[in-house]
## 1
Amino acid sequence: MVFNTSATASSVWLLDLRGAVGPASADYLIRGINEAEQAHADLVVIRIDTPGGLDTAMRDIIKTLIASTVPVASYVAPSGSRAASAGTYIMYASHIAAMAPATNLGAATPVQIASPSLPTAPKPEDDNNNNSKEERNPAKPSNAMEQKLINDAVAYIEGLADLYGRNKAWAVKAVREGASLAAEDALKLRVIDLIAHDVDELLQQLQGRQLTVAGKPLTLNLSDIEIHRYQPDWRNKFLMVITDPNIAYILMMLGIYGLILEAYNPGTLLPGIVGGVSLLLALYAFQVLPVSYAGLALIALGVMLMVAEAFVPSFGVLGLGGLTAFVIGSIILMDTPIPAYQIALPLILSVATASAAVLVFGLAMIMRARKQKLVSGVSILEGQVATVSAMHKGRAMVQLQGELWQVSCESALQLDDSVRVIAAGGVILQVEKL
């Protein structure tokens, strides 16, 4: 089977994987490859520069790569880029693996088992020894769960290495020891297929290359090339924004406090609408992010305790307990050590400080209100002086606070007599004649 035997130009789709591998980048690459298949593209080139990312997103991308009927070339570029961790797995799963000079790949150990007690990465000279020492100092996980994680990662990358005959021994070393390779060494060890300075040189080297795609032999014909740069659409950009852990965290807090404000002031509508929409967006983001449900529960408990302080004043006990639970829950909310998918500590401290300020302000208002005299109800009439302004059926009436009140007095009262309220109860005021 030969690509582009007609006179039309070869269609090459160019995609970019920049930054951490996550839900947004996975959605972008998967839809890009699928649309390239529908457009009968001759080749898809993915330029890679990533420190790694989430395992679930990486596996979704790899499933699409393996199932693709269009050949995919993963290309670590420009110079200075890397394909670390998840990027290495993606390179192994691609039909063609290429790198620019001064790039590197590797360090594919699952991040969950990273620990100061694990062996350090091998020295550069070990990488040039054709993997003769790959089993000498394997990582030793500290518990059964870590052992399962690393064994699963080893088996996974070994299967990917078998797909296109790449160096399996070094792949295992990259997982067990966190080994890395520069482009030149990767080519020598058959980890990648070629080195190219740019996309144009890459396509020139791929001209006439024979591949196996979806189980069928295939020859690339790239003599006349038309490059289609696939850009993220609004959906992908929106997904990229809301799946940022910091944005998702802010949306969650807006949602919680918006609903609380609506509960305090029913009928306001705006806080409830904003809070409801924000909370739903946050929950959507959390379903594709590595969320710790313990952290989420602690945040909810913390908010409830701080709100309870306003209803059941405990001189700060409930509030401080809620604030502590809130901070701890926020720190452990993202169940991953990957920096790109952790909530920034300054953001957590800012939200916690704002919550504490509101709590302290609320407590101060409560204490001040307890010390003040009553400003509502009939009790506020006690001590006030009034003049008898009317007589109704022999009972004197006075006008206070814009209303007529019946009064009861031990002395006989007449119009224009001055009285002072000594007790207020029901609809009759007890007065004394001045």
Note: The CA atoms of residues 263 and 272 lie 8 Å apart.
## 2
Amino acid sequence: MRLSNAGRWSLAALVVVIALVVAIWPRGGSDETSPRTYADYVSQGTTPAPERAPGDTDQSLAAARVAASLAPCPAPAAGTTPAGPLAGVTLECLADGRRVDLGAALAGKPALVNLWAYWCGPCARELPALDEYARRAGDTVTVLTVHQDPKEGNALSALTDYGVHLPGVQDGSGRVAAAVGAPNVLPVTVLIRADGTVAAVLPQPFDSADQIAAAVHDKLGVAS
């Protein structure tokens, strides 16, 4: 059966209407399943984001902390004075839930602070290289990770999967990024001098411990 010209136009109009309905129809579940980052809270006008998700209590995280077996967070050295943008920034240590004053804990020694999140693909590839670099650097450079999403339990699970045991803190509210002026991307590596001042903010993933060592030597003058 052949359609008349009027019939063909009617059919074409119907196809256009259906396409428009599909385009604007709400995608069920997408908002619930996609991770909410610090940037999401900013864009939705709900800042400040929580440091950690409400369901991530010390009790609920206990088993995940044991499984992750992370190194303890650095402790302040005697006689050092916190300085620089991280002075007074206090966050929860992923290993045990204790509060850590980053300015005090990092004072007196060059430091590498790595901003990451459990959903970040480049972070997953970079963290093992960072773990290898930390073992190579030993006591010459303090290496600390900073998880940039409120879901602390997901961070612990991710680190367990990666086999990475670096010391780290939980910072779903993005306080470290704001303090050092880091861009809204991940991963970001922040190199900090022994006096607490920021030597470099590097918004790039590293593929190997050698690349990380080269950046540390270039920006901090520390061979490792």
Note: The mean pLDDT is 85.
## 3
Amino acid sequence: MAQQQSARYDAILLSSFGGPEGQDDVIPFLRNVTAGRGIPDERLEEVAHHYRHFGGVSPINEQNRQLKAALEAELAARGIELPVYWGNRNWAPYFGDVVARASAAGHTRLLGLVTSAYTSYSGVGQYREDFEKATAGTDVAIDRVREYFDHPGFVQPFVEGVADATAELAAEGIAPERTHIMYVTHSIPNTAAKASGAGFEDRVGLGEGGAYVAQHLAVAAVISEQAAPSSPWSLVYQSRSGDPRTPWLEPDINDAIEELAERGQTDAVVIVPFGFVSDHMEVMWDLDNEALETAGEHGLKARRVPTPGVHPAYVAGLVDLVLERVNDVPDAERPHLTALGPWPDHARIAGGAVVDQAAESLEAASR
């Protein structure tokens, strides 16, 4: 198959959170995550036990290695000649090192595939800040794909997972009406959730929870409608941290499971970690350990739906998102499954500065 090369981009930057890969990495990693907050190592050690339980190794780096390989295979199968780099915010390979390698190889127009599907400071703002630092004083510019919370490639794995889980429970004699679907995502402070909607007030359905909550609710409705229309569902949260006096999004999944059991109308729960693209530490510990244990303690059967990982639909969807930018696909032709989408593109990060792409295009057209 003939190779296609993008005139706009010469490489892809798979961009993720990062994680420790051994016991000696845990505290340095947590220092990176909490940088600037003045948290002493004694406090960090208190929250390090999740990683210690798994030998100090977060699964996220290996998951990204697998995703990188899957993306490279999909690009090759389509005849798209774009190398894939992989960089992290909080652990090696760091963005700055990867940008330097890309520049040395002559790759200066990068398109970022961020492993965060929703709009929030941690999913958008922090990556933008890190891209600015990484490209400062370089000849490298980074664009990033839009948030893809309602892209079919991201949603399809969850639809399949919910359908499979509810079918398994039905085969065990549990009626769909007594199976509760719990859509779970990472909790964030209420103020951060509200701020996630800034500038998008004209979008359908934004409330006090901003874009972050609205996007999750919209996607949950789509998944349930396609996979489990007879089962009740709710949006719940996990992994709350920080000052207990600061209000965060609720309810916590464990509290929600306990409340469902007390009502007596539920025999089983299906846990859908649709706030995550792969089985991060929060999924393995907070859901596979704590939430499933809570369900068992309250006499409820439980199934945890897989995250997209390297599901073919997800990998193909990410490449579709790349081609959207490569080919300047109009919004009206961009696939989306909710009334909130498609979410808009981001400004470019070039040499450590945010470039207004609309103004840049206008200037170019006037020459």
Note: The radius of gyration is 21 Å.
## 4
Amino acid sequence: MNRHQIQLLLPILFGFFIMGFCDVVGISSSYVKQDFGLTETEANFLPSMVFIWFFAFSVPTGLLMNKIGRKNTVLVSMLFTFLAMLLPLIQYNYTICLTAFALLGIGNTILQVSLNPLLSNVVSEEKLTSSLTAGQFVKAISSFCGPIIAACATAWFGNWQYMFPLFAAITLISTVWLLLTAVPREQAGQNVSSFKDCFGLLGNKTVLWLFLGIVFVVGVDVGMNTVTPKILMERCGMALSEAGYGTSLYFAFRTAGAFIGAIILARYASGKFFLYSIFTALAALIVLLFAQEKWLIWGGVSVIGFACANVFSILFSFALQTVPEKANGVSGLMIMGVAGGAIIPVFMGLATEAVGSQTGATLIIGLCMVYLLFCALAFRKKH
């Protein structure tokens, strides 16, 4: 990759840092609940305000890209994110918080749909998977930093809300940087021009397999974040404050996995890497099903986080390469699959109640991984 390509790539990769801002809703919901004395149900509306838009806006964003281009669509997403960061500073109440996180969710949906294919404007098809993985690494750093920034704002300025002007400033820098970068426009021929055309892409068996793969890998990710503390509390008698470190451990190894994956995928076939990753994750999950000791549970969680770190990027790149002339529509469909993060935990809850322990939830995650294993076997020789 020459110097000019790197100059084009950097502002796009920096956009993935903005993408990670959606994960700040996790720590924010705890602060908002505390500030306004909310019930658990009321506090849980905040994450819902972020998640629901992935289902509602993903496909329309794919169609919007056909009209105004990928770069301009990314810039629109930045505007929504910037406004979301300003609202709590203007006035701070529960309604404003819901509105702010709705704007953040809309902006993040638009960003995820448009930023991923924008990479294909500046990198070759062979480098697309590793570039997407590098973007996920940048996003993971942002997600990891969010709670730390909130804690620092509270410690230094006495108010967690002071993280919002920092996020707004970073968003503005990203917007200006991309605006001033002459990213090549995508070639003509993005002939997905209606909802019917877009959903019609699911008639392609490969696209359908990959869409379901996105649903299940996001389900694995959200499921692991949800079930890890519960397993530690159930089997090891930990308090929630201590068991919560299991989730942090998962994120830490996921970040490391994305970094190493970006290096490996730049040199080796992504199909085989996908297969090895899922085999490893499934083996670790089997250990997790029966583990009773704290160190063994932490080990299983760490390996799963590390092994699954690159699966989303691999599936997404496979989808873009399957129908490259309809990449905008494909991107919208794939990001709509992120709604799997809202669907799979429901089945985990039902399974837990049926079995009477978190083993039920873990089995649901295992079923998701089995599907991903079939995907990996199907695509191991194609990419």
Note: The chain has two domains: 3-125+149-185, 199-379.
